[in-house]
UniProtKB/TrEMBL annotation:
Keywords: Membrane, Transmembrane, Transmembrane helix
Protein's recorded name: Uncharacterized protein
Membrane-spanning residues: 6-23, 43-62
Length: 63
């Protein structure tokens, strides 16, 4: 599976946008807070249950 020029362009634009946003201290601090919040125990527990539930459904309904 090859990566086409549209996908390369998307990656380049995303890197440019991330680099520009990284220069702003308030946005950078907000991003750190977002990552810290994502790894909170309660959120990881809910996501873990979702993964387990999805895995069980896939195993049960596999043909």
């Amino acid at each position: 599976m090859d990566i086409n020029s549209r996908e390369y362009a998307f990656v380049i634009w995303m890197l440019i946008i991330i680099a520009l946003l990284w220069c702003k201290k308030d946005i950078r601090d907000s991003f750190y807070q977002l990552i810290k919040t994502f790894f909170h125990k309660q959120i990881l527990t809910v996501l873990g249950f979702a993964v387990v539930w999805t895995s069980i459904c896939i195993v049960l309904f596999y043909e």
